[in-house]
Design brief:
Blueprint: E1 2-5, H1 10-24, E2 30-35, H2 44-47, H3 53-68, E3 72-78, H4 100-114, E4 118-122, H5 126-129, H6 131-146, H7 154-158, E5 168-172, H8 177-185, H9 204-209, E6 216-219, H10 224-233, H11 244-259, E7 263-270
Parallel strand pairs: 1-2, 1-4, 2-3, 4-5
Antiparallel strand pairs: 5-7, 6-7
Bound molecules: zinc ion.
The site of zinc ion has 6 residues, from loops.
Length: 291
């Protein structure tokens, strides 16, 4: 299984239980982390002993890797792009500033090297509209299609990699019905749901409008403690409500109210689910054939 995300903590706040479950069941899991998380702020106390926020966050990611038991970690080293409209979007080293084709080529190379049966990334809205998440959604979806085509990025084939097509593609997503209700109630408590978070850059109204179907329900009850330990590895990102990680935690709680506290949910993008067909998988590897 290949998990393709943007920041050091997306793996733990998005799908820690799923990674822990499959790693425990003997699946080889690799994670792509495209940025080094250098825009995420961290309190002074966490930075002691580290040269930079990026160095701290990569150490946190290695801690989570050890807890969740994933086999490989691929880092691309882009700069975190920050939320939409922030000056960090335009930094030339940011993930958002990189061309779609460049990022797709890098994900394709990982797919051809690691040869996963199942690939997981963000939904088209990146969960809550983060530009880096949307970038990784697009690049990973394109790479999933292209990795098996020898005419795509032929320089990788010339360098000795074989074309390879993974069998299934999933998007991490969540049921937004509870959130919808919550967003409707917020003005009653004097909250503006369009301007939330520490930087007032999270728009809950927009988030609940981006709803995707759920096709897979992964029971992670047995790995709840492991998942929590992995999330605690990212301690520098847990301080103060409003940061993306805190926000992801909130979303996870909302999702869990509906589908069960220890269930992580996914949309199946490939093989595509025809309109009107109800799919309720319990296992991302359902129907996967051995090579
Ligand atoms: Zn993220």
């Amino acid at each position: 299984m290949l998990v393709s995300v943007a920041h050091p903590d997306d793996e733990s706040f998005g799908m820690a239980g799923t990674i822990a479950r499959y790693a425990n069941e003997g699946v080889k899991v690799a994670v792509i982390c495209a940025t080094n998380g250098d825009v995420g702020s961290a309190d002074e106390e966490y930075l002691q002993g580290y040269e930079s926020v990026a160095e701290l966050r990569m150490a946190e990611l290695r801690c989570a890797a050890a807890e969740l038991g994933f086999a490989e970690l691929y880092t691309f080293g882009y700069r975190d792009s920050g939320m939409p409209g922030s000056p960090d979007n335009n930094h030339p080293a940011s993930l958002w500033a990189a061309s779609d084709d460049e990022v797709t080529a890098r994900v394709t190379k990982v797919i051809r090297e690691f040869r996963p049966h199942v690939v997981v990334t963000f939904d088209p809205y990146g969960g809550y509209g983060h530009p880096d998440h949307i970038k990784m959604h697009r690049a990973t979806t394109a790479a999933f299609e292209r990795a098996g085509d020898p005419t795509c990025y032929p320089e990788q084939i010339e360098a000795g990699l074989e074309p390879y097509s993974p069998q299934k593609l999933y998007y991490m997503t969540m049921d937004r019905r509870v959130m919808k209700l919550f967003v409707r109630l917020m003005p009653l408590f004097g909250q503006d749901p369009t301007r939330m978070g520490r930087n007032k850059d999270i728009n809950y109204v927009e988030i609940v409008e981006h709803s995707y179907p759920i096709h897979a329900f992964v029971d992670t009850r047995a790995y709840a403690a492991q998942a929590e330990r992995a999330q605690m590895c990212h301690a520098s990102q847990l301080g103060g409500f409003g940061g993306p990680s805190r926000f992801m935690q909130f979303l996870m709680r909302m999702r869990r109210l509906l589908v069960g506290f220890y269930t992580e949910t996914y949309m199946r993008a490939c093989p595509p689910v025809p309109d009107g067909v109800r799919v309720r998988e319990r296992d991302l590897f359902e129907g996967v054939a051995a090579d």
